[in-house]
Design a protein that fits this description.
The chain is an alpha/beta fold. The strands form 2 sheets. It has a 7-stranded parallel beta sheet, with helices on both faces. It has a two-stranded antiparallel sheet with strand order 7-9. The protein starts with a strand and ends in a 9-residue tail after the last strand.
């Protein structure tokens, strides 16, 4: 059984569809009940199996209560996809404290609480898969996304450390995959001014996520060519990296009055 957080919209919704096509039984979490129920309904109509729960992943107590309910109603989770994310964006000095805290509650701390709920059963069976939807900003911090970049750096490190811990514990059957997509047209990033990059679509990312699960890849970069860029970056000074960004004109544009879960 696979659990996808943030399944009512964007990448999470498409990951749920793609997993359903591969025959997985789905449990869907989202803060938006109508969107989440619609995703579950579409999966069930196409012949799959999906159950939806309304969950605010920023609330650790709510995660715990829902996880307990889930275990009673549908059983243990074999694949955990931590996808739910939020982005406010803007100049650091103009960011509200509440928004910064919310960003870390959803994008980073929620991973701790979901993993603590579902990892014990995986460890007991020495079988399972934890998937982290991070971002390329976890590898190269981006202006006007200081809070978001930091939250994704943190969750990248979380999964990397967890993978090493599982190895030391001798639980090699529990796999981890960290996914780092470039900018995706989910509604979080409104548009991007870039001479080279175009916005990815959620379904494109979802296909790569499921491939990463199937082939037990530790890291997945979308598009895949970004992995080569990271290799080259290791030999390049930070000034060169900034020059490349300036040359490409990578400047995300946001609506400062709105935000949404991914």
């Amino acid at each position: 059984m696979a659990l996808v957080t943030g399944a009512g919209h964007g990448i999470g919704k498409e990951i749920a569809f793609e997993l359903a096509r591969k025959g997985a039984k789905l449990v869907l979490w989202d803060i938006n009940k109508s969107n989440n129920d619609e995703t579950a309904s579409q999966i069930n109509i196409m012949g799959g199996s999906a159950t939806s729960y309304v969950v605010d992943v920023a609330n650790a107590d709510e995660i715990h209560r829902t996880a307990e309910q889930m275990r009673r109603e549908v059983g243990d989770v074999d694949i955990l996809v931590n996808n739910a994310g939020i982005l406010y964006g803007g100049e650091l000095l103009k960011l509200k404290e509440a928004h910064i805290r919310k960003t870390f509650d959803v994008n980073t701390l929620a991973h701790f609480w979901t993993v603590k709920e579902f990892l014990p059963a995986m460890i007991e069976k020495n079988c399972g898969h934890i998937v982290t939807i991070a971002s390329m900003v976890a590898k190269s911090g981006t202006a006007y996304m200081v809070d978001y970049s930091a939250s994704k750096y943190a969750v990248y490190g979380f999964t990397e450390a967890l993978s090493e811990e599982l190895m030391i514990l001798g639980k090699n059957g529990v796999k981890t995959t960290t996914v780092c997509p470039s900018f995706v047209s989910t509604g979080l990033v409104k548009q991007i001014r870039d001479k080279i990059t175009t916005l990815l679509t959620p379904d494109t990312v979802a296909v790569e996520v499921v491939k990463g699960i199937q082939y037990e890849e530790e890291h997945v970069y979308v598009p895949r060519i970004l992995h080569l860029g990271l290799k080259l970056q290791m030999f390049s000074p930070r000034k060169f990296e900034r020059w490349v960004k300036e040359f490409e004109g990578i400047v995300p544009q946001y609506d400062p009055n709105s935000s949404m879960f991914d």
